[in-house]
Amino acid sequence: MKMRTVIASMLLLCALSGAFLLTGCGGSGLAGQGTQLETFEGGWNGWVARHTRLDASPTAALSAQESNSPTSSISLFMNAAPTSDGVLWIEKQVQVPPSATVRVTIHFWLWSKDRLDTDRWNAVAFIGRDRPTAENHFTLLGDTDQVAGWREYTYSAVINTDFSGTAYIALGVSAVSAHARTYYVDDVLLSYFE
Ligand SMILES: [Ca+2]
After folding, report:
1. Cα(8) to centroid(ligand 1), Å
2. CA 100 to ligand 1 centroid distance, Å
3. What CATH number is associated with residue 19?
């Protein structure tokens, strides 16, 4: 069921990028555009976890506890103190067209334990030529805890790449109240086009 939704999302993004009909949208696609789906089934696959605050005990791990598809995801845990407002994220260096103006979009699923009316945290994401290092590098995508279970988030940005064509994508959660919480992220779909 969930995988069907992921595939539907892929087809939509492929259609938007114009790549699906010609390439199947499984890899690099037409010159200057492509997609990649990360399901975390085989491990971290080049993703790394980073955070801004140590006092919130930020921990990220490959987990089989919850998954959008099929069996594993990445868990994000923070025990935020009243003075903590840390961000915990996963990031990956990716290859996009070099020396170009590139539209990059990331679409992912985030799991919240409960639907909350108050004290929600924030889902955040980043796209850029250099890796993110501070909380204000991230864009707020909306509240976590809007549903008990999985919810989709999307972020898109235009970047000007250098000759190497490397870029960084990142996504995670930002604590805004004092709680100990675990979230999960899964099925990160990257798409880009010049
Ligand atoms: Ca998965």
Report:
1. 16
2. 32
3. 2.60.120.200
